[in-house]
Amino acid sequence: MTILVTIAFLLAVAGSFFMLSLSPFSFLEGLAAYVQPKNPSMKSKIEKSRKNKQPRGLKRLLLETKETLRVTGKSGMFTVLCILSMLLFVLGVMISLTMKNGYLVPVLAVGFALLPFYYIKFTAGRHKKQINTELETALSIITTSYLRGKNTIIRAIEENQPYLNPPVAEVFRNFLLQAKLINSNLKEALEQMKPCVDNAVFHEWVDAVVACQDDYNLKSTLPPIVSKLSDMRVVSAELDLLLFEPVKEYITMIVLLLGSIPLMYFLNAEWYKTLMFTEFGKVLLAVCGVVLFISIAAVAKHTRPIEYKR
């Protein structure tokens, strides 16, 4: 009966979209517009600069997800992510109603809806580490070539372009096209590379190369900047080693928690009935769900890659 009611609700929602000639993508883009920064007045800008209040909670998670998708070149996936979140929201409600546990409805609904956004945060860390690794290699060989003799930065990048790997190779390829065919202002072409890679060390390296265009002797400042990426890699590897055991234990605890529920049915039927059909058991399941999703958020927060800040 619960499944039939849920299916009827979904059909009613689909019919509403059809009658209003409204696409689900358009509807979600309208909702996503609330997350995007508005055009505030001068007064609100001054108050915000004084308070320096950072977004928190759900709004911060959505903003971080949008920024991650923008950096990885997948901004169009945000709407699809919102649709997946809505489907998981409905799935969580259906599972809770099927279990006849009203306490579990908001827990599973909200928890399942946030899972896609936390998944993006997990994958963003791996993507960030890949970019840092490729960036270290690229800046190292380009800097070595740039320091050799009287090479210009354009010549140094051209020599090493075949050895660069995506996604860093695309950044330097666009720079060469910009500097050689579009814009003769080398400093401006270098500055246009900075928004392409969200990395403070890369931005510092670009600033140093721009300064070298006025003073050739400033080339000696480039190797210490590149060495910061090596330091970040070493620290990141040590941190991954330290976090490996806690994360492995955390995953083991989740498996034990979720696996103990069906296992209890075979070990002790009375305990299983107490857990699934009594008020105390339903509340206990809801509390376990809350702790589980809060712990997922905490793990996503503390497993981010190391970043260098100036």
Q: Can you give a write-up of this model?
A:
With 310 residues, this protein is mainly alpha-helical. It has a domain at 130-230. Helices cover 77% and strands 0% of the residues. The chain has 13 helices and no strands. It has helices at residues 2-19, 24-32, 42-51, 57-71, 77-98, 104-147, 153-160, 168-182, 186-191, 200-212, 222-267, 269-277, 279-302. The longest helix has 46 residues, at 222-267.
Describe this structure in a few short sentences.
By secondary structure, the protein is mainly α.
SSE map:
Elements: H1 2-19, H2 24-32, H3 42-51, H4 57-71, H5 77-98, H6 104-147, H7 153-160, H8 168-182, H9 186-191, H10 200-212, H11 222-267, H12 269-277, H13 279-302
Shape: elongated
Strand content: under 5%
Nearest-integer average pLDDT: 79
What radius of gyration results from the CA coordinates? Answer: 26 Å
Low-confidence stretches: none
Largest sheet: none
SS field, number of helical segments: 13
End-to-end Cα distance, whole Å, is: 59 Å
Q: Which structural category fits the helices and strands? A: mainly alpha
Features:
310 residues, mainly alpha, 77% helix, elongated
